[in-house]
Amino acid sequence: MFGFLKDKLKKAVSSFTKKSEEPEEKEEVAEEKKEPEKEVAPEKEEPVVEEPKEEPKEEVKEEPKEVEPPKEEVKEEPKEEIKEPKEVPAPKEEVKEEPKVEEVKAAPKEEPKEEVKEDKPGFFSRLTQKVTKKNISQEQFEDMFTDLEFALLENSVAMEVIEKIKEDLQVKIIDQPVARGEVATIVSDSLKKSIGELFIKADDLVAKAKTKKPYVICFVGVNGSGKTTNIAKVAKKMLDNGLQPVLAAADTFRAAAIDQLNVHGDKLGVKVISHDYGADAAAVAFDAIQHAKATNKDVVLIDTAGRLHSNQNLMEEMKKIVRVAKPDLKIFVGESITGNDCVEQAKHFNDAIGVDGIILSKADVDEKGGAAISISYVTQKPIFFIGTGQTYDDLQPFNPEDVMEALSI
Fold this sequence. Notes:
The strands form 2 sheets. The protein has an 8-stranded mixed beta sheet with strand order 5-4-6-3-7-8-9-10, with helices on both faces. It has a two-stranded antiparallel ribbon with strand order 1-2. By secondary structure, the protein is α/β, with parallel strands linked by helices. It has 13 helices and 10 strands.
C-alpha cells in the first residue's frame, strides 16, 4: 500500500528542491558581476586623487604664515572693547552652564552607540543570509508546488487535503529565510506533519460493542464495495473477543445478497435473520434486534443494499432502516482503490444518515492510498479497519503511524 504515492512524493519533493535552488544560482551570479565593478571603480579614482593632495598641502603651509599678523590685530581690538565692560559675571555663569549643555550632549552620544550596536548585527546577518539563505516569494512557491500538487492528484488525494498541505507548507516557505540544502527537509517534515493531522482517532470497536447489549451496527455503502464480506470479517473479530453476533440480511434488493450472507453465517457458525427478496429491509433489521434480545446475543450486524446517492428510493429505504433500528454505530464501507470516488461517496452517505466511522476494503491492492489519506479528513470520521485480503482475519485496525511509515517521505 502507498508504494506508488511514495515514489511520486519523493520525485515531487526532489523537483521542489531543484526549483528552489535555481533562483539562488542566478542571484549569486548577479552578485559576482557587481562585486568586480565596485572594486575596479575605486582603483581608477585613487591614483587621480593622490596627485592633487600634495599641491594643496604646500599652499596651506604658506597661507597661515601671512595670516598670523591679522590674528594679532583681531586680538588687540577685542581687548580694548572688553576693557570698558570689565564686570562680566554673566558670561562666567554662562560658561558654568556650558558643562550642563555638555551633559545634555553626553546623553545623545550614548543613544547613537546603542543604535550602532543594533545595526551592526543586523547588517552582518543580512550579508550572511545572502550567501547561505534565500527568501521564496509567493510566485516562486506556486511554481515549485505544481509538481507536488500533480503527484497528489495523480494518487487520488482529495482537493481539500491538497489545500491543507499547501497552506501548511507555504507558512514555512514563503518569505522565510530558508537555508540552502534544507528545502527538501522542510518540505518532507511539513508533509509528514500535514498528513499526520488528517486522521481522526478511532475507538476500539470491540470495546465499544461491550458497552451495550445488543450493540447494533449498520453497514452502508455502494454496490460492490465489499459490505457483506466485511460484515463477516467484523463478525469473526467479535467471536474472537468472546462476543456473540447476529447477522441481519437487510439487503433484500440485490439478487443473491441473502444467500451470500447465509454462506458466511454457516462458515462462522453465526445466526442470520432474513426475509424474502423484496421484503421491507427495515423489518428485517427490527427482527434481528428482537432475536438478539431474546437469545441474549451481544451484537447485531445489519447488511444493507448497495446504493448510489442518486437512487432516491434506496436512499430513503436506508434512512428508514436507521430510524427503525436506531443503530449505535453506522459504518460506511468503501473501496480504497476507487480513490476520490470513495471519498465523495462517503460524503453523500454522511450527509444522508450521519456516518460514525469507515472501513476501507481492498486496501492491500491500493498502491496510491489517496482514499486512506483523504477520507477521514474530508468526512471528519475515523477509519476503524482496512481490508487486507480475502480471509476472515484480513481486517486490520487502521493505524495512522503505519501510513507514515509506509510513505516514509
